[in-house]
Amino acid sequence: MGLGNTSTEFGALAKTLHWLVAIGIFALLYLGLQQSGMERGDERSGIRFIHASIATIILMLMTIRIVWRIMHDVPSHPDGMAAWQRMTSTVVHWGLYAAIFMQLLAGAMIRGTAGSGLPVFGLIEIPIPVAESRESHEWWEEIHEFTWKPIAALITLHILGALYNHFILKNNIVRRMTVGVK
Question: What are all long-range contacts of 129-135, with beta carbons under 8 Å and residues at least 24 apart?
């Protein structure tokens, strides 16, 4: 398996980015939901710091992933796949990219409008060149609190589509992003 994509499967970089982002998104959803009902304090602040650090890394990985996807061909859909399935697959993938980017951007803007940068586990803090603003901060918080729901719905569709293709249609959709096409 090479670094680049082929006409039948994703390459090592695309696979690695896919799975790192997937793990990161699940961690972010978990941490976000875990701290959402907590009282202010050290425990909540600690979870938010870890959440923001993972989000910073995911933002970088997603940027690389989108640039890679735009610059390289992706494996074609299996022969005989219905047009509605091709369209659904495309809409779900690009919808996920857009919703994840919106969520990450909103989180970054929450930090920036509060006067903070993007943390990376205390190693560095990446400054965000935006002015502090309570009004903007609250607006970005509303976006951030909403956007996880479409992400969760799109992830569910993505997983169900993959399982349907693997177990019902018995094609190589899942293999081309995991163990490789036989």
Answer: none
The mean pLDDT value of the chain amounts to: 95
pTM of the model: 0.93
CA nearest neighbour of 37 among 25, 50, 28, 47: 47
Distance in angstroms (rounded) separating the CA atoms of residues 101 and 103: 5
Residues in CB range of 7: below 8 A, 6 or more apart: 73, 75, 76
What's the domain range around 89?
12-177
Total structural domains within the chain: 1
| Residue 1 domain flag | no
Would you say residue 96 lies in a domain? Answer: yes
Query: pLDDT digit string (tens) for 84-121?
Result: 999 999 999 999 999 999 999 999 999 999 999 999 99
CATH of the domain at 37: 1.20.950
pLDDT per residue as tens digits for the range 140-150:
999 999 999 99
Indicate whether 6 belongs to any domain: no
In the block, residue with structure tokens 């369209």: 87
pLDDT tens, position by position, 45-64: 999 999 999 999 999 999 99
